[in-house]
């Protein structure tokens, strides 16, 4: 079929461009007044079957996590509330108020220059407190700490810290008037010794010598006190990655204790042991990390069951439990 040369193609009608979308600020106008979001409340409740007491704590973070408010109290099975306390904690200032005792404890800490730190605490009801100054003398690990009660009753306690220990000088309290200016010395030294760490601690005219050897499978820790010559040692052995056995023996009193621990993942832990001093055997089961917070536990709840079996009266065995639960509101 031939095309007619006199045929004209009708013009294409003009199409209007699509409307441009308005900026988000124009399509969704923002309110004139904006209110800050309510801080999240964290409620923690713990129950101890041995004391039959509930422990409650309510806390929240304020001012964009710059401060924290906390209210805690106890109550028994009769609903009686005891030990209510209010706390306000920030980086440089904290206030703890006891509603029953109607007393406040105020603590503060701040830096005075790059090498001087000051801490202070004051008991309002007792009209007593303490001031501590910590000066970093040199790096690494050299520092001088001075602390004194307020009102002052004598010379401040001075502690010199260095990389391998510390030494403290403090005025010794005595009933003898002629010896009231006597200073007591205490300190601790530690360092590498025979593939382990040796520690010497002197306090109250007693020297305690301690050695710790530790590798991936075993720990051995003997301790000797002078001048009493009391000797004890602790032994820990990791049988498998999930099993651990600990043993402690006092050579002076012949008392000993042993603990076996087995973990199942990170949320279950079984422990059993015996203490010869109190002649008591026991076993416990933890649901949730024993040393961690309820936040990381399954359903944000930690549970401990404990069975205590006295050697001399098995019939008086006791099964106890402890539950700790957290809610975020």
UniProtKB/TrEMBL annotation:
| Amino acid composition bias (Pro residues), ranges on this chain | 8-21
Ranges of Low complexity composition bias in the record: 22-31
Cited InterPro entries: OEP37-like (IPR038951)
Question: Could you mention a single GO BP entry for this protein?
Answer: monoatomic cation transport
Coiled-coil stretches: none
Q: Name one GO cellular component term.
A: chloroplast outer membrane
Stretches the record annotates as Disordered: 1-35
What GO molecular function annotation could you give as one example from this UniProt entry? monoatomic ion channel activity
Q: Which PANTHER family match?
A: OUTER ENVELOPE PORE PROTEIN 37, CHLOROPLASTIC
> Per its record, how is this protein called by name?
Outer envelope pore protein 37, chloroplastic
